[in-house]
Amino acid sequence: MFLTNLLLKKAKSKNVLVLMESAVSGHQFLKIRERLADKLEMIRFDPYIQRNSLYKERKRVRSLN
């Protein structure tokens, strides 16, 4: 491996953008979390059913700077 390849590598970002999805209705929104943190689960208001519901992390969308 060349020395220039080592110097030009990008550092990994600290945060990632993840897709959160409701377990009840399928409503989705984006949330930012730290790269090394566990997968997110949260209770939040779901506008489709007009009640609070459980949202789980569905997938990582992209890295953030």
TrEMBL record:
Belongs to the bacterial ribosomal protein bL33 family. This is Large ribosomal subunit protein bL33m. It is found in: Mitochondrion. Keywords: Mitochondrion, Ribonucleoprotein, Ribosomal protein, Transit peptide. It comes from the Eukaryota. One of its GO terms (cellular component) is ribonucleoprotein complex. It comes from Aedes aegypti. Signal peptide: none annotated. Component of the mitochondrial ribosome large subunit (39S) which comprises a 16S rRNA and about 50 distinct proteins. GO terms for biological process: translation.
